[in-house]
Predict the structure of GntR family transcriptional regulator.
Amino acid sequence: MKIIIQHNSMVPIYEQLVNQIKSLILEESLKENEPLPSVRVLAKEIKASALTVKKAYDLLEREGFITTIHGKGSFVLSVNKHAKRENLLYSTQEELEQVIKKARQAGISKAELADLIAMILEEEEA
């Protein structure tokens, strides 16, 4: 499992972990019933505390992405299509918010940004 943690990021490590593991599950790089690394192993790999990894796993379990079986480990659950679409919509919204923020900082107007998006969408359709 390829996880890259940015220790100097403003995003907490557990949140980076959750987001990356969700993405791996949603894009099916991690398949249903596939085991995740143990809390200790992953903590060592990403140079974080076991409590941080445990917090991420607990959140993923609450959100229905993984299940933990005491003494056996954590495993990927199947993700229903609705949850997958909602998650993709949410991540797209977050990315768009970043683009809009960057555009505002660059002095790009709403109309210019809308024109740019329309142009890109037209190119995609061609």
